[in-house]
Amino acid sequence: MAAGEEEGAAAGTETESEAAVEELRSFKDLGVTDVLCEACDQLGWKVPTKIQVEAIPVALQGRDVIGLAETGSGKTGAFALPILQALLETPQRLFALVLTPTRELAFQISEQFEALGSSIGVQTTVIVGGIDTMSQSLALAKKPHVIIATPGRLVDHLENTKGFNLRALKFLVMDEADRILNMDFETEVDKILKVIPRDRKTFLFSATMTKKVQKLQRAALKNPVKCAVSSKYQTVEKLQQYYIFIPSKFKDSYLVYILNELAGNSFMIFCSTCNNTQRTALLLRNLGFTAIPLHGQMSQNKRLGSLNKFKAKARSILLATDVASRGLDIPHVDVVINFDIPTHSKDYIHRVGRTARAGRSGKSITFVTQYDVELFQRIEHLIGKKLPAFPMQEEEVMMLTERVAEAQRIARMELREQGEKKRSRNDNDDDTEEAIGVRNKVAGGKKKKRKAF
Ligand code: AMP
């Protein structure tokens, strides 16, 4: 895909919402009912965010919405509040469906629905892969008000769970809608759209949105209102973005150098494959860093475990594939490192959006090797600025290479062992911190003596 091919705000037949959002308004001013205003208050949401100011009133009027908002902008509240309010007005089971591309996002969204809706007795269920289908079927049999799902597992249930259907659905939300509407989920989304009523409200939310009308038409929006907090792709002002241009073979050493230079911060490091995520986590742990992996080849329990440990600050480095690049709300990420440059420029925006959230400042550093120059240029083109180089002392990096080479060797060995174990147990769960921990103990005394970089 050429850079910028899908660039820009969603286009189509929608009317632009012209509302200027200058003065701070209250949730009540937006038309939110008292009991939900109280729920916001209890969450510490004193005033609505910009996207909430734009989207909530039009959603409450019963319009379809295309919400374009930066990550961390409060977009979940922007669609959850109107849905909860409509539910209060006409209570009904299996009322709303929220589709998200990743399992972690589904849990995050469900937490917000529950927090906002607990006082009105809202029941939600998360339907995602990697979790026992039987307990999900039981939860669906209880007919929750809101289902938050990844498309694949939902289709499974629509096809196989007796008595479950979405024929009375009133609201469909696609969060990270451009991902949901792209090819990856094409078959699943088509199946879902066929079995839900056309007569429903549809909300599409994303920080980046396709402008391909064809794709948007699939979501069958009816005369939608576009609510754009920033119509051009933007990265937040408090984010300092850097790149480093380095030879591919020294990537690990540069990574270790940067982690040492910025010690005391919490990091998200993005890798392009599950294997490299796992390898790099092993490498860093061998060097004494508290690093934890999160990728698609881990069991769902382990994925949530990793995320929770990182969220609770029990680990300072989360290594992840793009499974974690979108929407995750972890307020304390100080630095995002693109260890492997993203192949789709838009993923850059999502990845760096994991830091500098909610008014905090943050840094991002993108590794650019001799093979990545073109991809990097596309990113600069997309964000509309030239990035400065992150200052480094090359000699200090070179002093690390020997210790890094040793840790690489051990990591490779551990990775091989894990692969063999996995094959012999035919089990997916050996991708964990525990597994890494065990191996580190085996690598043992040697590691302990080594100074934690
Ligand atoms: P989201 O963009 O939906 O992922 O939300 C990002 C974070 O902002 C979440 O932790 C929400 O709890 C929080 N949030 C949402 N709306 C508000 C608000 N009006 N005031 C303060 N925080 C909010």
UniProtKB/TrEMBL annotation:
Domain Helicase ATP-binding stretches: 56-227
Bias (Basic and acidic residues): 414-427
Annotated stretches, region: Disordered: 414-453
Keywords carried by this UniProt record: ATP-binding, Helicase, Hydrolase, Nucleotide-binding, Nucleus, RNA-binding
Domain DEAD-box RNA helicase Q: residue ranges: 25-53
Gene Ontology BP terms: ribosome biogenesis
GO molecular function, one term: hydrolase activity
Primary localization: nucleus
GO CC terms, sorted: cytosol; nucleolus
InterPro entries from the UniProt entry: DDX47/Rrp3_DEADc, DEAD/DEAH_box_helicase_dom, DEAD_box_RNA_helicase, Helicase_ATP-bd, Helicase_C-like, P-loop_NTPase, RNA-helicase_DEAD-box_CS, RNA_helicase_DEAD_Q_motif
Pfam family, one: Helicase_C
Catalytic activity, EC: 3.6.4.13
SUPFAM superfamilies: P-loop containing nucleoside triphosphate hydrolases
Reaction(s) the record says it catalyses: ATP + H2O = ADP + phosphate + H(+)
Enzyme type, top EC level: hydrolase
Highest taxon in the source lineage: Eukaryota
Family per record: Belongs to the DEAD box helicase family. DDX47/RRP3 subfamily.
Name this protein carries in UniProt: Probable ATP-dependent RNA helicase DDX47
Originating species: Pipra filicauda (Wire-tailed manakin)
